[in-house]
């Protein structure tokens, strides 16, 4: 018998808040976290805007020695994971650490460190780069550092599926608990790619918006959209087997009930025409949840603000849901945060869980010009109260990766 999986802790570092609660309140209010890049001088760059993390105080989470030995993406992951652990109320003395795992994604890993150490190597010789260069750089070390810090001795892994990574990590962790391999999993994603090289690379491939107006930069489903805005940060959820959570009287945010993962097998960057792979992921997730398509009330869209993604994701939702596509609500909170790549699905799963808990759908902000190919209810500009029971969070990544999660509002048993 498949076991139930619930969310009992959350942590987030994002352009719209440095805790899960701050992020959710900003999403409810429709705050835009996009602004001029401050991490480096953009004088010779076409792209001027990003969704940067602001005023993050690391001292409640990490000491100076730990910080020096981690790339920024690992630092963000550590903060979010420690928040989620503390939020869960778990007592390490009362759990089996061998049944406690970690799955934290990163699309790019320690690119800050790669850039810094490459310059040092050019100046001083490459045998004199930092001895911590490799463990600071490699993508799995966010998960590894979290496991070491919190004593998680179960499965520890890192999904690397580009922009689908955060959702794949949560979905894979969900299955690990549901199928009996773990009782607890910290799952999510982290990214810190607002750097000269990363921004330059995405600019060169014409993926980023080059507007200098924060209100017209990340504009999902708008006819004037022209590329995504890079975001940074981390989101981590504590997933827990339901009976394990109930036995200790844990607070429960929401339940994860379905997961679909597919591949377009089509193109390195473009979604398949009509969103065929994304549609299959949604159908699989609904089937996995044991519900009907008509049960989905809200979709937190991948909604990147690129021409192809938004058009094909809209088509995918229509293919997966038929007439019900026009009855459900589908917003993109990337309009507020920008696109956090491997962390996007994680912070959006947190937002989706809170939407269910609060009965509130966050808006797609800064929407102005309708696109006839993106004609679903995208909750333009203002969020709204709604009775929500089931919600979906979509993530689609370069390489054709598609991931869909289905979450259910938690209702206490009497």
Automatic annotation (TrEMBL):
Keywords, alphabetical: Acyltransferase, Fatty acid biosynthesis, Fatty acid metabolism, Lipid biosynthesis, Lipid metabolism, Transferase
Record-annotated Ketosynthase family 3 (KS3) domain positions: 2-409
Matching SUPFAM superfamilies: Thiolase-like
Catalyzed reactions: a fatty acyl-[ACP] + malonyl-[ACP] + H(+) = a 3-oxoacyl-[ACP] + holo-[ACP] + CO2; (9Z)-hexadecenoyl-[ACP] + malonyl-[ACP] + H(+) = 3-oxo-(11Z)-octadecenoyl-[ACP] + holo-[ACP] + CO2
EC number: 2.3.1.179
Pathway participation: Lipid metabolism; fatty acid biosynthesis
Enzyme superclass (EC): transferase
PANTHER family: 3-OXOACYL-[ACYL-CARRIER-PROTEIN] SYNTHASE, MITOCHONDRIAL, POLYKETIDE SYNTHASE-RELATED
Summary of the function given for this chain in its UniProt record: Involved in the type II fatty acid elongation cycle. Catalyzes the elongation of a wide range of acyl-ACP by the addition of two carbons from malonyl-ACP to an acyl acceptor. Can efficiently catalyze the conversion of palmitoleoyl-ACP (cis-hexadec-9-enoyl-ACP) to cis-vaccenoyl-ACP (cis-octadec-11-enoyl-ACP), an essential step in the thermal regulation of fatty acid composition.
Family according to the record: Belongs to the thiolase-like superfamily. Beta-ketoacyl-ACP synthases family.
Protein name stated in the entry: 3-oxoacyl-[acyl-carrier-protein] synthase 2
GN (gene name): fabF
